[in-house]
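Practice problem: Phosphoribosylformylglycinamidine cyclo-ligase
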Amino acid sequence: MSENTGAGPSAASYKTAGVDIDAGDRAVDLMKEWVRKTRRPEVLGGLGGFAGLFDVSALKNYERPLLASATDGVGTKVDIARRMGVYDTIGHDLVAMVMDDIVVCGAEPLFMTDYICVGKVHPERVAAIVKGIAEGCVLAGCALVGGETAEHPGLLGEDDFDVAGAGTGVVEADRLLGADRIREGDTVIAMAASGLHSNGYSLVRHVLLDQAGLALESHVDDLGRTLGEELLEPTRIYSLDCLALMRTTEVHAFSHVTGGGLAANLARVVPDGLHAVVDRSSWTPGPVFDLVGRFGPVERLELERTLNMGVGMIAVVPQESTDVALTTLADRGLDAWVAGEITGRGDRTTGAELVGDYAG
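Answer key — structure tokens:
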């Protein structure tokens, strides 16, 4: 074979194809300190292994341990982070979406893994995302035991990214919460949301950015800050609050208010034959919900089945536990209130409904 001396194409490599292994390695180095902050005694090994290891020998103290698992992402809220160039808050949202689903059944969050998909690895950007996930894990009381960063050139733009995660928790079988514990006369306690959380952003972006043409950098007087700052407000993580509530008083069920809104999510834990009635007059939704409704315009029922309307988590407790529950949450700095009760279903066809008008 003769040697090719012409000016042909240069040798191909993974890097010329769009995947930079060196950048990925640097991203891992930058994120290590944040992952260490989430470490629990049960975690074995460090970052960089093929799998995360968690010592479950502690579960031998359980009579019948049940593992609870969940997986989720944060939806199109990542587009707001990308547009604003802010990457260290979206991880809070991811942990909340996963671990607050797990705690609903009464489970203690144990560990989590993440998946970050990018068009191009910018090490500092990836590290900022992981920093947010690690901070969220600390707030949820769980360990971040591993994850994956995937570079997808040609499928995603250089600044595009998405995040997803999976988590595991544990609950004693006889402490499992859910519909079978709920009784007529139970109190429905609402826990305040920090804002929009991580649902309904396709509607929010369509209304405020596309239709109304608002800029993320614009200051909105009703919000008291820029629109972008409001839309990036991290999802509140309720895991430790819910666990504290279980330690101090009897709890029958939790409901994490995510996609579908308050009524639909609460209905998921209401047993056949009973009905949850939530009184809108017990709270005033934050101004961002009114903003979306006015600029749409979006009808109230459509807002309520898309957004959380200011309630991020529901606890259903026996009536006699109401005062202790409210005190416990207040002591933890969480705004909570009696929002309704569990009644007989009668001729109602749904498991939960909102009645009345919002306060204010």
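Discussion: Confidence is low (pLDDT under 50) at residues 1-5. Students who identified this feature from the tokens alone can consider the problem solved.
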